[in-house]
Design goal:
With about 100 residues, the chain is an alpha+beta fold. Helix content is about 20%, strand content about 10%.
Length: about 100
């Protein structure tokens, strides 16, 4: 499992970097965040129910799990709860 934690991420900077990159390379390879792989599950703390520009290319097919608690109040025993619901979903990746 790979866990990405982004602090002070800016989608405009990420996409601008890709737009100004070498056009012979694929778009996702030109992103400043190219080393971040496709994200399967995005967890939002504090009850936020929006993407807010977070990794727009990598989160296209992500599942979202919303935690009502803020990050400091998050219980480690709750960390596996999001995986139960996503395992039952049909994943078509847009097809």
């Amino acid at each position: 499992m790979r866990v990405n934690v982004l602090v002070n991420y800016g989608w405009e900077w990420d996409l601008r970097t890709a737009a100004q990159g070498d056009p012979k390379r694929r778009f996702h390879e030109r992103l400043a965040s190219a080393d971040v792989s496709r994200i399967d599950l995005l967890v939002r703390w504090g009850g936020m129910r929006r993407l807010s520009g977070m990794l727009p290319v990598q989160t296209v097919y992500s599942d979202f799990y919303v935690v009502e608690d803020l990050w400091p109040d998050y219980e480690p025993s709750s960390s596996m709860k999001p995986y139960g619901g996503t395992a039952r979903q049909d994943v078509t990746l847009g097809g």
